[in-house]
Every structure is written in C-alpha cells, then in structure tokens.
C-alpha cells in the first residue's frame, strides 16, 4: 500500500500528468473560450491540491474552486457559539477534534475557556471520549460531533461503545452535515458555473459510487471520485476535463481500489440504527432541510442537545466572508481580512483555522508564488 | 526504602539525604561533590558553552527512550550542535508526591547510562517534591557545560550554494511519543530517535572547518528550525520534498492523522549547513555512526537578503514554509 502511495507522488509519473492536464485544459479553453471550472467538495482535497502543488501548477489553466467541504467551516456561527457555551457548564468534560479549539466564537474560543480552567480535551481517536466518561463517572462527558459522512460513522461507533459498557455520563452534541443536500443547494442556487465536481475519496467509501447518480440524472453534471495523492488528483482533473470537453455527464470512480458501487453497507447499517435526518444550519447559507443527521429519539440519553441547554445571544457580526468562500463565490484572498486582520494566529473565521479550511490552505501554501 | 516519594523526601532531612545517597549518588557517583553546596570543576582556558533545558515529556517512558535519557541527550545535543564538547551536566528534579521510587531509579539509571555513553559527568543536582496534583509525575531540568576546542566549530560564514544535510529520518520522536500516549487509537511501530549526537558531530567538526551552522530540530521540527536559521541570517533556503527522509511508518501515521512530518519533533537529529564541496565527505562521516546512517542532503542556500525557507514539491512548484503556528501538540519533550 505504501509503495502505491509513494508511486502516486513520484515526480516521473506526476510531471507528465501535469503536462497532459494542461494540454487538455488548453483544448477546452480553445473550444469554449474559458477555463474549465471544477469544485472540490472536500476539505482534504482542498489541502492536498494546495500542498502537493497541483493547484499552483494548474492555476493558469484550470479554475479549481473550493466548496463546502470543511466540516468546521460549514458549521454556522450560532452552532459554534452554542458549543463554546456548552463548555461553560459545571462538572463537564468537553471532548473535541483539535480543529475546534481555535475557531472564533462570538465572544471567545474553546481554547480561551480551556486556559480559563475548563476541562476541554483534544482527541485524535474520538472513541477515547467513551473511556474518558468511564474514568470520570462524576462528570458529564460531551463530544462535539462535527463532521460529514466520513466522521459520522465514528460517532455511531461511540454510541455503540457507550451502550455496550453501560455508560450513562456520555453524550454527543450533534452538528453533522451531509454532502448531497449541500451539492443540490449549490446546483439549485446556480451561483457558480461548474463543469464538474472532484468528489471526495473517503466520503465515497461510505456512500458508494451509485450515491452520486442524481448529479448526472437531475443536473447533468459530472463527478469524478478521487483520492488524495498527487497522481490521483491530476488524473481526476484530467478525467473531468475530458468529460466536459465531450459535454458528457458521468460519475467516474477514479478510486476503485477502496470505493465500491454501493458504499460500505455495514456502516449504512450503523447509520440506520442510530440516526435520522434533520435540518441543519450552514454558514453563509442558512438552514438546508434534511442536510444533517441527528440521533433517533430512542437514543436521547446520548443526545447532548436533549440533555443540556445553552444560552447564546445573536452572533457577533464581522467582515469575515467565510460564507462566500465555502459557497465558492470568492477565493480566500478576495476577502479584505485575508492575511491582514485574519491569519492563522488570529483567525476571524473558521476557514482560516481548520486544517481543512480554504483560507488556511491558501494562506499556508499559496499566499506567495515563486 | 519506601516505595513511593512523599513530601519528606524533599524536606532536606533524613529522607532527602537517603534519597540522594541511594538513588542519585548511587547512579551518578560523585559522592564527594554531594558533600558540598557547589561542585568545583576543572575547565581548560578559553570559552565555554552553557545551555539549559527542562523536560516534561508525557509519558515518561516511551519506545526508544525515557525522560531520563532525553534529559541527558537533549542538553548534550544543544552543546554539540553549538560546536562545543559537552563535559558536565547538572540536574534538577521536581517530583510529584506518590511517584514510584522504582520508576525514579529507572529514570536515573537511564541518565547515568546516557551520560556514560556521551562522556559527560553529572556534577550537581537538586530534588524538590511537590504535593500530589501539583506536578505530573516528574520533571527534570538539566544544565550542560561544554568546552570549545581550538579551531573547532561552526563558522557562520554562509555562502549561496551551501548544502543542507539532515542526519536521518524526521518526525520519529513526535510520532513515537504521541502514539505512546495511547491517544491516537493506533499501535505505532515507530521508535523515538532520542540519542546523543556529540561523538558524531565532534567527528564532523574535527574533519572539516567548512561547517557554517548546526542545529537540532526538536520542537517545531525540521521546518521551524530551518525557518529560524533563514530569518536569523537572512538566507533564502530551498529544500526538496522528494529528498526528505521520512520513514514509511511515520508517513502513514501523518497521513492518517493530518500531521506534517516537517513539523514533528526529533530528539536525535542534526541539521548541518556546510560548504557544498564538503557535503559528500561529511555524509560519509555521518554514515559511520548508527545515529547518522540515513544522513542525506535535503537542499541548499539559494540566495541572501531575504529570510525564507522554500519547499520544492515533486511537481517542481515551490511554496514557502513557515514556523509551526498554533498547533497544540501535547507535551513531547
């Protein structure tokens, strides 16, 4: 496996691929009088495209637009404020992914609360939260359940583990998001002209190739399921241009070693057992019906939103344009705050904090060209 | 003897006396020095180097080392990369009430073994005990004294074209310690690179006077250390992603968890910047030592006047590397 990954970044393979993509893109531009435009809908793709140099190499030939793929970034400000307020309660241990710590709330961050003495723990393996609960029976342990289809199965695994061990002091604050509803929103809104989607390899392991049929059937737009290594990204983009040139719409599985047609049915079983669709509020968009998953009523004892109430005011207004960044309407450096008032040490919006955020990727990897 | 440290071990009385005699003097020797409030040292004429470092790593025992080994190697390496020959160490312990004396003995033995290996003598020490909950197990501070030998050292007269060498794979310590904390949810086969480098680096300096600078890329990793050198001396440096020595296991963990090996800590690696003409010779010297067997050239100085570190990707594009910023890694050293 490591050997395959190594080959996927081998310059002797990747450099000719860049040339091939550029040739194909030129063909497109000659035919249609504009650059082809594709959206990556996954924060890991956003980071990989910038880090590997694929995006900088193609910047003059292909318009790669980052979409709503970073889970922290798409979470609306009220939800962020609610999670920060949650940590203020007494006798609580908040467990979270590291990305959340420095996301700016309207008045403070979780890091501020941790420094002020609140027990907030960053976990790399979320299931650890169940162990934390077991070891601290006199405290309420709450996991901040942010994520797309890649993370949601882990949340159900945690509930299963808590059930199995009979742990009563564990719950999840669910603010999960689903890919399909937001893609439909973007396509229905028609604010961005796209020739196709670079679809996320890991989300697709869960969802399966067939789950994207609506893109072709209802919107006549292509999607290529793609991995995260340099050669995979380049070949995914090549296939998207090829389809766009032929004006064909299709779903191409460019990651067949791990993505099947139906997705992971065992995981689908977990999701069906514990979760039900719910409305979710998205940053810069508002509520999209049935765009998230919440725990079914029979699991209310693990649902932090049912067990704890938080009081929050109206979110602080800033000039942050994260909402437009995640809809693909502007590039990070088109925000007046980018690199000035807003930078990784002083983020104004979540896109500058998260390891998957468009602004963080642009700041870290593409702020200057050499 | 008691099995656990209690507050009386730090009160300066009978138990303190027994702890020093049975644990520290037993391992470090120097019973005579322990009779006085200060050690008297023989230092040859000329300049000396002094450095100090505190060690708060969790867990205190990890694959490839312990807080004791690290407390000696870390300080020895700070002296060695400065071009000095490490000769003396002092150590200060802050121990939490309830800490196991057998673990303390293990740590002190590791320190004594590492000191012996490196040829330094531990000449002074101090022990404090704090109430349970006021510290996490044990913290150690070591101060190191090194001597500069005549005509041996780093010149700092950088030139465009100078080569950048790293003495082996990067990120091993960071991954080993994070995995040993049991929080990653993975079993990692990675061992910390924790090792004293003074003999190897001494050998380099005795065979060339064309080394410009040496640094050990500990916290903040290779990238942060190189950015510091670039900014401090206003150098534009370029390193090549394809030349970076990264173990497959480390790369795998980084891919899974979103770490960048360029920013992970090392505890047994040196960066050596030197005259391009001397690079092959120095690589050969490094490769004679187990700590340097994977030494490799990773880049060069490409310009002056602008303190910048660039990374060339496998595709040939370049991007700027910055210091590690705001990532909350747990205690790793």
How would you sum up this structure in a few lines?
The complex is a heterodimer of chains A (370) and B (333). Chain A is of the alpha/beta class.
Top keywords for this entry?
heterodimer; A: 370 residues; alpha/beta; Rossmann fold; five-stranded parallel sheet; four-stranded parallel sheet; B: 333 residues; alpha+beta; 60s Ribosomal Protein L30, Chain: A; seven-stranded mixed sheet; four-stranded mixed sheet; 13 strands
Query: Order of strands side by side in the largest beta sheet of chain A?
Result: 2-1-7-8-9
Q: CATH topology of the largest domain in chain B, anyone?
A: Phosphoribosyl-aminoimidazole Synthetase, Chain A, domain 2
> Strand count, sense and closure of the main sheet of chain A?
5 strands, parallel
Number of domains of chain A: 3
Rg over CA atoms of chain B = 21 Å
Number of E strands of chain A: 11
Number of helices of chain A: 17
Main sheet: strands, sense, barrel of chain B: 7 strands, mixed
Uncertain runs of chain B are none
Q: What is the CATH-assigned architecture of the largest domain in chain A?
A: 3-Layer(aba) Sandwich
Characterization of this structure:
The complex is a heterodimer of chains A (370) and B (333). Chain A has helices at residues 2-8, 11-32, 43-51, 54-58, 71-74, 77-86, 110-115, 128-135, 152-165, 179-189, 201-207, 213-219, 230-245, 265-274, 304-307, 322-326, 358-366; strands spanning 37-40, 63-66, 92-96, 119-122, 140-147, 170-176, 196-200, 223-226, 251-253, 275-282, 286-295. Chain A is α/β, with parallel strands linked by helices and 370 residues long. In chain A, the strands form 3 sheets. In chain A, strands 2-1-7-8-9 form a 5-stranded parallel β-sheet. The longest helix of chain A has 22 residues, at 11-32. By secondary structure, chain B is α+β, with helices and mostly antiparallel strands. Chain B has helices at 14-28, 67-81, 101-118, 172-180, 198-207, 221-232, 248-257, 279-287; strands spanning 48-55, 61-62, 65-66, 85-96, 121-130, 138-147, 163-166, 211-215, 235-240, 271-274, 296-304, 308-312, 318-321. In chain B, the strands form 3 sheets. In chain B, strands 8-10-7-11-9-12-13 form a 7-stranded mixed β-sheet, covered by helices on one side. Chain B has a 4-stranded mixed β-sheet with strand order 1-6-4-5, with helices on one face. In chain B, helix 2 (67-81) runs parallel beside helix 3 (101-118) and helix 2 (67-81) runs parallel beside helix 5 (198-207). The chains are: A alpha/beta (370), B alpha+beta (333).
